[in-house]
């Protein structure tokens, strides 16, 4: 019984598939068709964005969806190629091989394999908490910076300037420029403006219609290009057969160059995936197992590597469309993969007729939605350090590239965190009259005792802030000439490392000359466990009190009131 439960926990498909009902099939089927129609042009565009042949995008959209269905804890997550993963792939591989070459494709598959193994290992070891090292300001800053890079990179295919300068295109080939800008304008009009109009008119299924309208426009523009013989660059022919399954041949020197990009791509992709998965699960009153999602996304990337693809992740718009279209289970993803495989096999000749400018316009509009200036404003208002992490990450991405940018952003975020924790808030507190509550004397009217200086430290104590705290305590005591007792209220302290413990002991030695005793109050159990194993308690001249109120009663020599 336990073995069956463990197996079902590792393979969530064993939980929902036996309970699958006919009434959910219609929703899964309709969602699979809609997502397939959405994913096919996107997968082609993202493959080109990654510097790969268009079929790589198709390959990354078949087997990964099937494999993910076996491991996923999310019922509606839709995985596949993403703009951010594509640009990170291109950034990682451009220095290593020629874009579009067989070596480049092999390296892309190797990158997916390493990323998948890393994510799966995190999930199996229940180390999902490590992904929290990438904060939301860093992720949003990286996404915004990468989106700007994507937009800049796609202006060339949009305006038909692959082989010439933009000035040459404007003078000698203005029809390329006009065609690209027309595609961009029409796709934009059929996006948010159409959605707003349909919602205002209260049209049924307004959001779904708005999502699908650009896809019908793509078909219409493609037909017009060939019907009117418009001169523009096309995707061109590509193999229509299903992917051949083979493991990438990963050499030690490639491993040394790819392991860091693989980890970065994996973490960035997972954080995007888990964000949308948790949001939709919350609305549906379901639970998401982050470790299981790591395993599922890792398995999907391994499948992408085995089928000639490149790194994949969950997509915001794709998953939202999947849920809005009626998907109930991961079987919708399996059926989506089947539709894509059929389309790639039977309609590859038609897909090859898609104009590159049209796909570039699609990517640009997706990238524009990824630029989150609202988040920057909100985070800066809340705490300038979070806003600084966003800005520094975005600038690093623009100046250094996607891979180096997210590493730099993470480093800046950790430095700001260390700076924040190294400058802890320290408050001199007094008692609120008639209560047992102690508050900051600068914020409240309180009762204090001249002989007792009560201080609350609002941060865990460690080597990075122990000297700062020690200096501030000495400064506070210098302004209290009548002080005989220093009461440290540790209610907000979750840990004290060895360096901080020694700093407190040294402070007691220095204060002994002034006949000032150090006392502790409201020490948490885990902190006390560590202090008992050290010499600190034996070096203090004072006592350890259960509460600040009890300490003040004892040290002030009165049972109720203190002098003000």
What features would you describe in this structure?
InterPro entries: SLC26A/SulP_dom, SLC26A/SulP_fam, STAS_dom, STAS_dom_sf. It is found in: Membrane. Helix content is 63%, strand content 5%. It has helices at residues 2-10, 13-16, 22-49, 54-59, 63-71, 83-93, 102-124, 136-159, 166-172, 174-189, 192-200, 206-227, 252-283, 290-306, 316-324, 331-346, 348-351, 356-370, 373-382, 384-400, 402-422, 466-478, 498-511, 525-532, 536-539, 548-556; strands at 79-80, 313-314, 426-431, 438-440, 452-457, 485-489, 517-521, 544-545. The strands form two sheets. The chain has a six-stranded mixed sheet. Strands 1-2 form a two-stranded antiparallel sheet. Helix 6 (83-93) runs antiparallel to helix 13 (252-283), helix 8 (136-159) packs antiparallel against helix 18 (356-370) and helix 9 (166-172) crosses helix 10.
**Tally of distinct domains:** 2
| Mean pLDDT score | 86
Helix tally?
26
What percent of residues adopt helix (DSSP H or I)? 55-70%
Share in β-strands: 5-15%
Straight-line N-to-C gap: 68 Å
Main features:
single chain; 564 residues; mainly alpha; Transcription Regulator spoIIAA; 2 domains; six-stranded mixed sheet; two-stranded antiparallel ribbon; 26 helices; 63% helix; STAS_dom_sf; transmembrane helix; STAS domain-containing protein
């Amino acid at each position: 019984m336990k073995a069956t439960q463990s197996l079902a926990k590792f393979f969530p498909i064993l939980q929902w598939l036996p309970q699958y009902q006919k009434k959910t099939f219609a929703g899964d089927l309709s969602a699979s068709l809609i997502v397939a129609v959405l994913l096919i042009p996107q997968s082609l565009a993202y493959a080109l964005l990654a510097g790969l042949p268009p079929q790589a995008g198709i390959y990354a959209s078949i087997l990964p969806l099937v494999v993910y269905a076996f491991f996923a804890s999310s019922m509606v997550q839709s995985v596949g190629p993403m703009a951010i993963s594509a640009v990170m792939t291109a950034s990682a591989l451009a220095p290593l091989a020629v874009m579009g070459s067989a070596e480049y494709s092999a390296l892309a598959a190797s990158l997916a394999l390493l990323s998948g193994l890393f994510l799966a290992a995190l999930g199996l070891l229940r180390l999902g908490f490590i992904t929290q090292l990438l904060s939301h300001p860093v992720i949003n800053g990286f996404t915004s910076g990468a989106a700007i890079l994507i937009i800049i990179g796609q202006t060339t295919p949009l305006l038909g300037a692959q082989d010439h300068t933009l000035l040459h295109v404007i003078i000698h080939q203005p029809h390329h420029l006009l065609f690209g800008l027309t595609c961009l304008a029409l796709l934009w009009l059929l996006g948010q403006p159409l959605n707003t109009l349909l919602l205002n008119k209260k049209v049924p299924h307004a959001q779904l219609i708005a999502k699908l309208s650009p896809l019908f426009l793509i078909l219409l523009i493609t037909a017009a290009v060939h019907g009117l013989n418009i001169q523009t660059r096309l995707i061109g022919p590509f193999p229509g057969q299903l992917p051949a399954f083979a493991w990438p041949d990963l050499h030690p020197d490639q491993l040394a160059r790819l392991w860091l990009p693989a980890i970065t791509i994996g973490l960035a992709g997972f954080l995007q995936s888990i964000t949308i998965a948790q949001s939709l699960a919350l609305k549906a009153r379901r639970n998401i197992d982050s470790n299981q999602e790591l395993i599922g996304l890792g398995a999907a990337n391994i499948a992408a590597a085995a089928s000639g693809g490149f790194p994949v992740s969950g997509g915001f718009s794709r998953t939202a469309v999947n849920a809005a279209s009626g998907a109930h289970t991961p079987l919708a993803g399996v059926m989506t993969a089947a539709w894509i495989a059929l389309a790639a096999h039977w309609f590859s000749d038609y897909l090859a007729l898609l104009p590159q400018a049209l796909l570039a316009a699609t990517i640009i509009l997706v990238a524009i939605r990824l630029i989150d200036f609202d988040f920057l404003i909100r985070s800066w208002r809340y705490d300038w350090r979070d806003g600084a992490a966003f800005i520094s990450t975005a600038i690093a991405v623009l100046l250094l590239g996607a891979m180096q940018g997210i590493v730099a952003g993470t480093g800046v975020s950790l430095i700001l965190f260390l700076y924040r924790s190294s400058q802890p808030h320290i408050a001199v507190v007094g008692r609120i009259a008639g209560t047992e509550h102690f508050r900051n004397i600068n914020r409240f009217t309180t009762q204090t005792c001249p002989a007792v200086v009560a201080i609350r430290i609002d941060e865990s104590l460690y080597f990075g802030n122990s000297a700062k705290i020690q200096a501030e305590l000495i400064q506070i005591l210098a302004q209290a000439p009548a002080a005989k007792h220093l009461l440290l209220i540790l209610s907000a302290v979750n840990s004290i490392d060895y360096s901080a413990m020694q700093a407190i002991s040294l402070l007691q030695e220095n204060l002994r000359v002034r006949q000032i005793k150090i006392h502790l109050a409201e020490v948490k159990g885990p902190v006390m466990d560590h202090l008992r194993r050290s010499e600190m308690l034996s070096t203090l001249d004072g006592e350890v009190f259960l509460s600040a109120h009890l300490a003040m009663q004892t040290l002030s020599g009165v049972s109720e009131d203190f002098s003000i």
